[in-house]
Design brief:
The protein has 32 helices and 20 strands. A 7-stranded mixed beta sheet has the order 7-8-6-9-12-5-13, with helices on both faces. The chain has a 5-stranded mixed beta sheet with strand order 14-17-18-19-20, with helices on both faces.
Length: about 800
C-alpha cells in the first residue's frame, strides 16, 4: 500500500486482508497434502474393489499373506464362544516362553504372543523377553521398540506374575578398546541435555515439535549403554581408528572412501586377520555393491548378499541359457548367452569373447546364430554342443544338467563355485520331483522362482564379507570397517498415511505438510539411524575402523542428519576426528606370521576336452520300456499300429545316436536291437522286424533330400499354433538355407498325411528367425520305399 493511500484503509479492508493472508498460508500448507490425496483418489477406488474380491482370491490361490497371520491366529486363540480349539490342542504342553530380539516385535505379533504368555504364566510358567532397545532397527517393517516398556507394565501380566528386570553388564564379544569406545561415545545419550541437543540436530527447526519425544526415547534407550569387558579376556586389547574424510559431496566422499578402504583392507586387515576375518558394513545394498566392486577391482575376494544369489552367478546364468537353447534351438539370445560365457563354454572351446563378438557383428540379420556357429566352428559344435542337442528329448532336466556339468568338467574347472553348482543341481532335482520333468517345465519354474534362490552363507570361504548393517545384526567379526555414516534421510514419496484435514480424513503420502504427526514419524526413523550406528560399531571383536564426514558441506547437508548428531557426540567424547585427526584407541595389532610353506598337493591330471565322454553314454545300456500303447487291447497282440510305433522308435534312436553316411548298417542294426529289446513280441514278429527295420533305416540314410535333416534335425520337437495346441513333426531341421520337415509313415498313404505335413510347414515358417526362409516337407513311406515332397500352403 502506497503512503498516499494509507488513509483509505478501513477496518473492513484490514479484516479482508488478514483473511486473505490466512487463506494463503493455509493453501501453502494444505495444497501439497490435498494434491497428494487427489493423486491417490482413483487408486483408492480401485483398491476398494480389489479388497472386496481379496478373500475369494486368497481362497482360490490357496495363499495367506504374512500380514494376516497375527489377526487370524489371535482370533482362534481368543475364543469368544467357549474354550478355543487351539487351547485344547496345545493342552498342558506350553509352560515357558522366551522371545528373543523383542525390541523388533510388531504390535500385532505381540497381541498374539501375549495370549500365549498369559496362558504360560497362569500355569505357573515363565515369560522371558530378551532384547536391546538400542538395537531396534526394524521399525520400517513394524517393529515396535516401545513394547519393551509396555509389556512389563501390562496389568493382566503383572497380576499373575512379578516382573524382574535384568541388564547384562558384560560384553563377551569385543576387546576392551572396542568396549571403551562405545561406552564413551554412546553413554552421553543417556544424559537428557545431550539427548535433546542430538534430537535437535537430527530433526532441525522445521520438526521441533518432535524434539522432546525423540530426546526422551534416546535417553531411555541409552541409559544403560555402558558395559564392562569380560574379566576372562586374554586376547589383544583391540584397536579403534575413526578417520574423517573431508569431502564437499557424496560423490567426492565415495572417491576418498574407496582409496582409504582399499589400502586399509589390502595392506593392514587382510595381513592381520585373513580375508574371512574382515567385514565391511554399509547402510544400503547399493552401497554394499559399490564397496564390493572396489575390492574386486583391487583383487580382493568378496562375498556379498547378492553374490550368493544363484540367478546372479555368471556360471548359473550360462547354464540356464544353455538349457534354454537346447530346449528351443531357434532361441538366438539364449544361444549367444551360452556360447559367449567364458566360464561355461568359452574357456572349454578355446574361443575368446572378442572373436565371438567380431563373428557375430558380421552376421546378416536373418541368419540363425546357432547354425552360423555350426558352420564357422564345426569341430567345436560336434564336440561340445551337438551331443547334448541329440539327447535333449531323452533326458529330463536333472540328468541333462548333470551331464553338462560332467562333460564340461565344471567342478574341476571351477572348484570355488562348487556350492553354486551343487545348489543349482539340487534345485533342478527338487523341481523334477514336483512334476517339472521336461526342460521347458523346469525353465518355467526357474523364471518364476529362480531369483529368490541363494547359496547358504559359506562359513570358511576365504573372502571379505560385505553386507548391510541389518544383515550383520547378531554376527561378529575380528575386524569391521564402516565406511559410510552419512545415512540418507527419506527420499522420494513417503509411506501412505491417513491425514486428518478440516474436510475429513484422506489417504496421502507422508510429507512435512502433515505437521506434528509427520515430525513424530520422522523422529522414530532418525532414532533408528542412531540404533544402526550402535549395531555397526558393536560388531567387531578386535578392530573397528570407521570413516566419517569431515568438516564441510557434506557434514552440514540437511539430507544427511546423522553426521551432525555424531559431531555432538564426538564433542562430548572430547575428540572430533574432523578437527583433531583420527581417533585412536588401543595398539595396532601385530600382523600374523605367514604360514609355513606347504608342499602343494599334486592334482590328478584332467582329461583333455577331446577325452570327455559323450553325454548320457549310459542311456544305451538301459532297457527303456515305452508306454506307447494307448489301448490295452493293442498290447495283447501285434497290430499294424504297434508295428508303426516300433518303427518310429527305431528311427528316433537311429537319428539321435547318429550314423556313418558311408556305412549306416551297423548303426541301423544297433538301433533296431535296442528298440526291440524292450518289446514283448513273439518270435516270428521279432524275427521279421529284425530284418525289416535295418533295411528301412539304411534306405532312409541314403536319401539325398533327407541327408541334412538326418544329420542336424530334432526328433519330436513341439510346435505351438495360435491356439496353443501342440504339433510334433517326426523330424525338424533348421538349416541355414531352409527349414525341413520329415514325417515317417508305415502302411499305405492317406490323404490326411499331406495335410498334416502342410500344417507343420506353416508353423515352422513362423518360427523366430525363420521367416522368409523356404520350407521343405517330405512324407517318408518305409513300406513303399517312397519319399514324397509336400508343398507348403501359400
Amino acid at each position: 500500500m502506497l503512503k498516499a493511500g494509507q488513509d483509505r484503509i478501513t477496518p473492513d479492508l484490514e479484516g479482508l486482508f488478514q483473511a486473505l493472508t490466512a487463506a494463503h498460508g493455509a493453501c501453502n500448507r494444505d495444497l501439497p497434502v490435498l494434491s497428494g490425496a487427489l493423486g491417490l483418489a482413483p487408486f483408492a477406488v480401485l483398491a476398494r474393489r480389489l479388497l472386496a474380491d481379496f478373500p475369494a482370491y486368497l481362497t482360490q490361490m490357496r495363499v495367506l499373506p504374512h500380514s494376516q497371520w497375527p489377526g487370524l491366529v489371535g482370533a482362534r486363540l481368543a475364543g469368544n464362544g467357549g474354550v478355543p480349539d487351539a487351547w485344547c490342542r496345545l493342552g498342558a504342553g506350553l509352560a515357558h516362553m522366551l522371545i528373543d530380539e523383542f525390541q523388533d516385535t510388531a504390535a500385532d505379533q505381540w497381541q498374539v504372543l501375549r495370549l500365549l504368555a498369559l496362558e504360560c504364566l497362569s500355569r505357573g510358567g515363565s515369560l522371558f523377553l530378551v532384547g536391546d532397545v538400542k538395537q531396534a532397527i526394524y521399525g520400517w517393517r513394524g517393529g515396535e521398540a516401545a513394547l519393551f516398556d509396555q509389556a512389563p507394565a501390562d496389568p493382566e501380566l503383572t497380576q499373575v506374575s512379578d516382573v524382574v528386570r535384568q541388564s547384562l553388564p558384560v560384553n563377551w564379544r569385543s576387546a576392551p578398546a572396542i568396549v571403551a569406545l562405545n561406552n564413551r561415545f554412546f553413554r552421553p545419550l543417556g544424559d537428557p541435555r545431550t539427548a535433546r541437543d542430538v534430537a535437535e540436530a537430527l530433526l532441525g527447526p522445521e520438526m521441533g515439535t518432535a524434539v522432546p519425544d525423540l530426546a526422551a526415547s534416546l535417553t531411555m534407550a541409552f541409559a544403560d549403554a555402558s558395559q564392562n569387558p569380560s574379566r576372562d579376556w586374554t586376547g589383544p586389547q583391540g584397536h579403534v581408528r575413526i578417520t574423517a574424510l573431508t569431502a564437499e559431496s557424496a560423490t567426492a566422499y565415495a572417491e576418498a572412501a574407496r582409496d582409504t578402504l582399499t589400502r586399509l583392507v589390502t595392506e593392514e586387515l587382510i595381513p592381520r586377520h585373513g580375508e574371512r576375518g574382515v567385514a565391511v558394513l554399509t547402510r544400503t545394498n547399493p552401497q554394499a555393491a559399490q564397496v564390493a566392486s572396489w575390492l574386486i577391482a583391487a583383487g580382493v575376494p568378496v562375498v556379498t548378499e547378492n553374490s550368493l544369489r544363484l540367478a546372479a552367478h555368471p556360471l548359473i546364468r550360462q547354464l540356464v541359457a544353455m538349457l534354454a537353447f537346447l530346449d528351443y534351438p531357434p532361441d538366438g539370445l539364449s544361444f549367444w548367452a551360452f556360447v559367449s560365457g567364458q566360464e561355461l563354454f568359452g574357456d572349454m572351446a578355446g574361443i575368446s569373447r572378442e572373436a565371438l563378438c567380431q563373428w557375430l557383428a558380421g552376421l546378416p540379420g536373418h541368419v540363425s546364430p546357432s547354425l552360423a556357429f555350426r558352420d564357422r566352428w564345426p569341430d567345436v559344435w560336434q564336440r561340445f554342443i551337438q551331443p547334448y542337442l541329440r539327447q535333449t528329448g531323452l533326458a529330463g532336466p536333472y540328468d541333462l544338467t548333470r551331464e553338462i556339468m560332467t562333460g564340461y568338467r565344471l567342478l574341476a574347472r571351477h572348484p570355488g563355485d562348487e556350492a553354486f553348482l551343487r545348489r543349482f543341481l539340487e534345485i533342478v532335482h527338487l523341481a523334477e520331483n514336483q512334476g517339472r520333468t521336461s526342460v521347458s517345465a523346469f525353465l518355467d519354474f526357474w523364471r518364476e522362482l529362480g531369483d529368490d534362490e541363494k547359496v547358504p552363507q559359506p562359513e570358511n570361504v576365504a573372502a571379505v564379507r560385505v553386507m548391510t548393517i541389518h544383515k550383520a545384526k547378531g554376527l561378529q567379526f575380528p575386524a569391521v570397517v564402516v565406511p559410510f555414516h552419512h545415512f540418507s534421510a527419506r527420499s522420494g514419496p513417503g509411506e501412505l498415511v491417513t491425514a486428518r484435514l478440516d474436510e475429513g480424513e484422506a489417504l496421502v503420502p507422508d510429507q512435512p505438510g502433515l505437521g506434528p504427526d509427520y515430525a513424530a514419524r520422522r523422529a522414530r526413523e532418525l532414532a533408528e539411524q542412531l540404533h544402526l550406528l550402535y549395531v555397526a560399531w558393536t560388531r567387531p571383536e578386535l578392530e573397528l575402523h570407521a570413516f566419517v564426514p569431515g568438516c564441510g558441506k557434506l557434514r552440514d547437508d540437511a539430507r544427511y542428519p546423522l553426521p551432525k548428531a555424531m559431531a555432538l557426540l564426538f564433542k562430548a567424547l572430547g575428540h572430533d576426528p574432523a578437527t583433531a585427526g583420527p581417533l585412536l584407541l588401543g595398539p595396532v595389532p601385530e600382523t600374523a606370521p605367514a604360514p609355513a610353506p606347504v608342499c602343494p598337493a599334486v592334482a590328478p591330471p584332467q582329461p583333455a576336452p577331446d577325452a570327455v565322454p559323450p553325454p548320457m553314454a549310459w542311456l544305451p545300456r538301459l532297457m527303456v520300456y515305452r508306454n506307447a500303447v494307448t489301448d490295452i487291447r493293442d498290447a495283447l497282440h501285434f497290430t499294424e499300429k504297434r508295428r508303426g510305433e516300433i518303427v518310429h522308435a527305431a528311427v528316433e534312436r537311429f537319428v539321435r545316436a547318429g550314423f556313418d553316411p558311408a556305412d549306416p548298417t551297423p548303426a541301423a542294426r544297433l538301433a533296431t536291437a535296442l528298440t526291440l529289446g524292450g518289446e514283448r513280441l513273439d518270435a516270428a514278429a521279432r524275427g521279421r522286424l529284425t530284418e525289416e527295420i535295418p533295411a528301412m533305416l539304411v534306405w532312409l540314410a541314403g536319401l539325398p533330400q533327407c541327408r541334412e535333416a538326418l544329420a542336424t534335425g530334432f526328433c519330436e520337437r513341439e510346435l505351438l499354433d495360435a491356439d496353443g495346441a501342440r504339433h510334433r513333426p517326426d523330424l525338424l531341421a533348421l538349416g541355414p538355407e531352409a527349414t525341413i520337415v520329415l514325417d515317417f509313415k508305415t502302411g499305405q498313404p492317406a490323404p490326411a498325411h499331406a495335410g498334416q505335413v502342410a500344417r507343420y510347414l506353416t508353423l515352422a515358417r513362423q518360427l523366430p528367425g525363420r521367416r522368409g526362409l523356404p520350407v521343405q516337407g517330405y512324407l517318408v513311406y518305409f513300406d513303399l520305399s517312397d519319399c514324397r515332397p509336400v508343398e507348403a500352403p501359400a
